Amino acid sequence: MERTMKERVLSVFKAKKINVNKASKLLGIPQRTLNRQVNENGKVGMELVYSLLSTFTDISPSWLVLGQGEMLQDVDAIQALSTSAPFYSDLPVTAGHKDAFDPIMERPTGYISMPNWSAQFYFPVSGTSMEPEIHSGDIVGVNRVESLREVDPDKIYMIVTNESRMIKRCHSDENDDSIMWCVSPNYPAFKIKKNDICAMFHVVNRIERL
Fold first, then answer.
1. What are the two backbone dihedrals, phi and then psi, of residue 172, each rounded to the nearest 5 degrees?
2. Is residue 87 scored above 90 in pLDDT?
3. Which of 43, 59, 97, 137 is in the most buried spot, having the most CB atoms within 10 Å?
4. Do the Cβ atoms of 141 and 205 come closer than 8 Å?
5. Are strands 156-161 and 139-144 parallel, antiparallel or unpaired?
6. 0.70 cut: is pTM over it?
7. Tens digit of pLDDT for each residue in 5-36?
8. How far apart (Å, rounded) are the C-alpha atoms in residues 99 and 187?
9. Which helix (H) or strand (E) covers residue 181, if one does?
10. What is the distance between the alpha carbons of residues 144 and 2, in angstroms, rounded to a whole number?
11. Are residue 101 and residue 164 in the same domain, yes or no?
12. Are residue 10 and residue 98 in the same domain, yes or no?
């Protein structure tokens, strides 16, 4: 019988000789959250997948996410991927509402290697909300933000909710810490609840359209 993702995560724990308590410390995920995802009825979340793959670089993403191939990557595959990041050409980042990005469900269309830059993912940009800084047709590289407290209003972010995937500058509301304001040069600022944010990514580099 094909293993579920939860079973594959537990297989990683077994192979690395760690329990939930030790995994919690290694991965930076609260023990209660981790235990709920792997030992109870919770769903394996994006944060757990990211943390496992970044902590144990010999684990195959295809095996962990899709159950394809073997658990461990070969050395050549690890070296090839260490200088590149997945590119999702079918998932444009916009100022409007699109399907949210979930690397558990999505497959990259290719990989991009940018010397002297380190990005976890690459996405094409659609729309004009961030012009003139970022143009429609550009490709942006992003890195995951581990805490919303790290958000800098001078930087540009990709915000992922259950219904949207967009790039904006962001800052917390001065009077309500549960609210995040999204700002762009060409559209009025609007607010979203922090609890509605599934993930945030810092835009670290841009490939300009030709």
1. -75, 155
2. no
3. 59
4. yes
5. unpaired
6. no
7. 889 999 999 998 999 999 988 888 888 889 88
8. 21
9. strand 179-184
10. 30
11. yes
12. no
Query: Residues 63, 150: one domain?
Result: no
Are 152 and 50 within one domain? no
DSSP-based helix, strand, coil % in the chain, nearest 5: 30, 30, 45
- 51: Cβ contacts below 8 Å, ≥ 6 apart: 27, 28, 29
Q: How far apart are CA 19 and CA 22, in angstroms?
A: 5
Place of tokens 């919770």: 42
pLDDT band at 97 (very low <50, low <70, confident <90, very high): very low
What domain range includes position 69?
A: 5-82
Tokens of 188: 């009025």
My answer on whether 156 and 76 are in the same domain is no
Average per-residue pLDDT for the chain:
81
Instruction: Give dist(CA 101, CA 88) in Å, integer.
Output: 10
CATH number for the domain harbouring residue 15 = 1.10.260.40
